Structure formats: structure tokens, C-alpha cells
Amino acid sequence: MSHQKLPKFKVKINGTPINVMADTGASVNILDEATFAKLRTKPKLSGTNKKIFPYGSNKPLPLVGKCDCEVETEKKFSVETFFVVKGTTGCLPPQRVLFRVREKLEEQLLNDEKLGVIEKTEGPTLWVSPVVMVPKKEGKIRVCVDMHQVNKSIKRERDI
């Protein structure tokens, strides 16, 4: 699937309009060097020892550094940490949510959070698993977690 076919939306990063793709499985924000170079107001880039791995890979992304940027959408403003990746394709392998189900997913996640089924996390986390949405007959969706990568890391009693 080419990047042109993936759903994108516009945000302002440090006042610069940027087309981005939301990766629902990512635990960090990524900018490539080319996008970083386009920012009208360049944030201070600091070094980092962090290792960031694309989903399902054991090879880390080549990082140039990290920075804090102002991110603005039509409804929200926040300051977020971004890791700058060497080269011109700084997005992680896509695990996209189709626009036609995004609103239903957000509603379901908010409902699950209210019920205590899930809890919101802020900042980095050790485990992030992609979700799979299954349509229900009444038009709602069932959110399922893809545990393949987690299961590969679990040590069974018989294996210890």
C-alpha cells in the first residue's frame, strides 16, 4: 500500500501545516529529517539514547535526536515530544484506523474507559498492541487486541 493511498489529516507542528498519519499502535511521535527541516520554527534537537523499533522488527530506527513541538489541530493544542528519524520516511509501518470507523472506535474506547475495562496512559509504555475492529450487526464495533507480538514474548512455565 503506498503512502498516497493512506488516510492523512493536517495538523500544525510549530506553526507549520503538516500532513500526518495517525499510527494507533505507536508509543512515540516520529518526524523524518525532511519534515523537521520544513518546520518554520525549529525546536532545539537534543541527543537521545532511546531505541525505537518499528512494529514487528528487531532493528531500531536510525534516530537523529528528539525535540518538543507545539501540535495544533482544529480542536486541541498540546506540546509533544517527537523523535527525528534519519531520512525521508519517518512514519512507522502503518496500523491505520479507517476514517469511516474512527468515530465509532473513539466512542467505544471512551465507553470502555468509563467502564474501567481499559485505562488511558500518558507517555511511553512498554507494551502497545494493535487493535482489530470487528463490526457488530447493530452498527457498533467490537474492539479486539492483536496479542501476537506479546504472546511471542511470554515465557511459559514449561519453557522456564
Automatic annotation (TrEMBL):
It comes from Paramuricea clavata (Red gorgonian). PROSITE patterns: ASP_PROTEASE (PS00141). GO terms for biological process: proteolysis. The keyword S-adenosyl-L-methionine does not apply. GO terms for molecular function: aspartic-type endopeptidase activity; endonuclease activity; nucleotidyltransferase activity. Keywords: Endonuclease, Hydrolase, Nuclease, Nucleotidyltransferase, Transferase. This is Transposon Ty3-I Gag-Pol poly. InterPro entries: Aspartic_peptidase_AS, DNA/RNA_pol_sf, Peptidase_aspartic_dom_sf, Retrovirus_Pol_polyprotein.
